[in-house]
Amino acid sequence: MPISVSTDPIRPTERQAFWTEAICRSFANIETKPLGCVVVSGHFEFVEIGGAKLVRFDSSPQCYTRDARLVSRAGSDEFMFDFQRRGRSAMVQAGNEGTIDPGYGVLYDARRPFEDRLFGPEQRAELLIATVPAASLLRSIPSAERLCARPVPLSGTVARSIAAMVRDAISLSDAPARQDEPDIVAYLSALLRLAAGASHQLSRPDLFRLIDTHLRTNIAAVRPVPALAAEFGISERTFHRIFADRETTFERHVLHLRAELFKNLLRQPSLATVSIASLAHQCGFADAAHATRAFKNKHGTTPRDFRASVPVRF
Fold first, then answer.
1. Chain centroid to CA 256: how far?
2. pLDDT tens across 75-109, in order?
3. Which pLDDT score is estimated for 217?
4. Radius of gyration of the chain (CA)
5. Which among 7, 37, 282, 298 is most buried, taking Cβ atoms within 10 Å?
6. Conformational region of residue 247, where left means phi above 0, alpha means psi within -120 to 50, and beta covers everything else
7. What is the DSSP string of 277-290?
């Protein structure tokens, strides 16, 4: 279950102290300072997965600082990576300085002083933050310290899928626990390798999670295997082996995802008046007949009968 924090119920005069304390208590020892005259406002959701901490974070313009005094007093043995979603960040560390726009990320070393200024349109900045043990990241990327405060592009399919996976890990953290928790260090290492022009070196199990995330996001228009394999930097043979490892095929997995999404849409009261054909199209089925056959094969009933059986909620 994620920890959720918001300044909304706090009196404006007390928000700055509350916000700083909440961040320090939950995931990072820092000092905060408002930028400009906007009333302090912020929200974050925080979860721990394995040895990693994942945060969905947004705030009014703020400067977040960890100086030498705080490093010495609080200690830390972690690296942090920000996925910029809205607004901009100005990151400074160890002589490096980078401006991070949406569609980019940035690595920084919590063992050393840094300054991060968040600002953006409508006085709002939003990002995802992944915090991992320093020793684990350095084993995978020995040069990580030299990469801090430099913009990392998140435009490729692998990078976008990693960002989406982190987002989903936070959003779905109250769902039943899964045995195959994501290896956040492996994914951050892959981002840094790609930014340096190298291959991602992800294992087949790690790639399956990314491909699955990508398919769920793009299920209405799934690209053919040759194109997907190229986008994920692997051969078609390896692509098919990823699914064979799980005793399925790419085609069966796509059909499974479409049928599950179709089921979820059919049970939503807000979509009760939307036609079966329209919902089938949203799931990527060619037509209502194809969707009905796939749904009945998987769930033993037709979409129309399933929808009729869903209890009405008032």
1. 23
2. 779 999 999 999 999 999 989 999 999 999 999 99
3. 94
4. 22
5. 7
6. left
7. HHHHHHTT-SSHHH
